[in-house]
Every structure is written in C-alpha cells, then in structure tokens.
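Hi P.,

Sorry for the delay on this. The queue was packed all week, but I finally got your sequence through. Input first:
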Amino acid sequence: MTDTPLDIARLGGTTMGTTWRASLALPHQRDLHPLHAGIQARLDEVVAQMSTWERDSDLSRYNHADAGQWYPMPAEARTVLACAQAIAAASEGAFDPTVGPLVALWGFGAHAGPRHVPDDATLQATRARCGWQRLRWRDDALLQPGGLELDLSAIAKGFGVDHVAAWLRGQGIGAALIDVGGELAGYGRKPDGQPWRVLVESAPEEDARSDAPPRVLALDGKAVATSGDRWHQYQADGVAYSHSLDPRSGRPVRQAAAAVTVVADDAMHADAWATALTVLGRRAGMALAEREGLAARYLERTAQGPQEHLSSAFQRLLDGQVA
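Then the structure:
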C-alpha cells in the first residue's frame, strides 16, 4: 500500500483586524471548504471571547461588569489569562493584561481617546485602575473589583494560532504553518520532507543598513512572534509615542527596539514574551531571557545601523540544536 501523495494547500482570511494564512500538507483531493470554515470558526471563537472591539465579547462584558461581580470566563479565555498572569509575574509587571485603560488614555486600541500626552494626575488616576495583581479567581469566574479592564491584544493572536493548530491536528492534518497577523506556528514536515521555514527580518523596513545575516527559523513544533515600535505610533510635539506601553510607569516605551522576536513551543507564549521583552528593553530583557531560557532576538537601531543581539537559546536554534 502506498501513501497518498500530499500537496500544499494555502488558505486565508481576515480576523482580529488583520489577516490569517495557513499552509496545509494534505492530499490534493481533500475538500478545502470545511477546513477554511473550521479555521475561521476557531478564530471567530477567540474574537467572541477576547476582543476589545466587540461589545458583546466575554472580555468586553467583563470590562463593563459591576464592581463585585464574578464573571464566568470560558475555557479558552481562562487559558490565555493564566498564561498572561504567569508572564506578568515572571516579568515583574512588564507584561500586564489589565492595561486597557492606559492603552485608551494614550490614544490606542478600541476605546482610544484623543492622542495627546496626559497630565500626571490623569495618568496616575488611570494607573490606579490597572494591575495584574488585582485579578482574583473563584473556580471559573473572575472578579470585577471595579474599573478593571482587560486587554489581551498582546497575547490573543498568538493563542489564535495555537487554537487553529490544535484544531487542524484534530482534523488529521499532519503538517501545517499558521500565520495570524505575523504570529506563526508550524508543525510536521512539508511533502518534500523539509520543515516549514520562516525568515526573521534583518533590518527595519525604513533602514536597509545591516550587517546581520538573514535569520531563517525551522518551525517544527515551534512558534515565533515579533514585537516592535514601527507598527503603531504617533508624533506629538516632535516626540514619537509607541503603542508599546510600560505598565509599570503607565507611559509608552521610549527608544523601543526596532523588533523583538521570541521563539517558543506555542505562539501564545511567544506573543506575550515578545511584548514583555520589548517593554523591558535589551539589557534587562536579555537578562530575563537568559534566566527563563527564552529564545529571544533584539534588533536595535544604532548610529551605525541596525544591530542584533541573540539569547543563548536563540543561537542554539540557529545552530540546529534544541532550545
């Protein structure tokens, strides 16, 4: 008996204000319509639970719940929040899923206010509404202590990738590469026996000068996410303000790295850690990456052009070793 020849099918769509793509290794006669619909349905589940843009999402309902109410969270949202709380603790608050009010205050996100620098009194009052330490669980329900607003935009896309990957495995798809807004995960081998390979940028788009070689990662049971300062920012009085907020100060990160890339076993962790390391900056972030065994890469702007810094685990990935 011979194995059925496999081809690569490519599907795509839109979700979470961005696009999704999936490359699947499967027999050419396999009907793609149920697979496309299933992928979209998994991503729609994430939106229905965790979007700040949808008024009826579980997250939005929690954010508007009365003080003292225990809001029951669905299983997927609980998984994401458990990861978010763990990374918040490990990063000492550099990652914080409760920064919703600060995101809006600085003019970003679904409920963005005017884009201007807030006065200190307003900033401190808004900071007082935040804090991952305020999260309290009772079984499957999360307490709304009053004024707390979750924002999972720095982790939900990554979870969406994992959610799709798990579903595809359940459909008998032995190899796939999934991309949701630049967060990627791959498993299995392509029909030619090779792993899925992705290119990590070697220079910011606006600056082609770089001595760093192109970095190609093989994703076989791995995920990769990149955070940086060039996607969302604005200028005010000649100063650039990034959407990457430091929850510890309540202010946008100054002089953020052009890009921070993290490779992990799943996209949820890669997504959140990329944000945390962006907030921490290269020195503190790289020290944390070494302590946590994270495969991390910083791409920084310098007067001499972009320069990269690799954690030990990231270097081992490039060397073909297990991170």
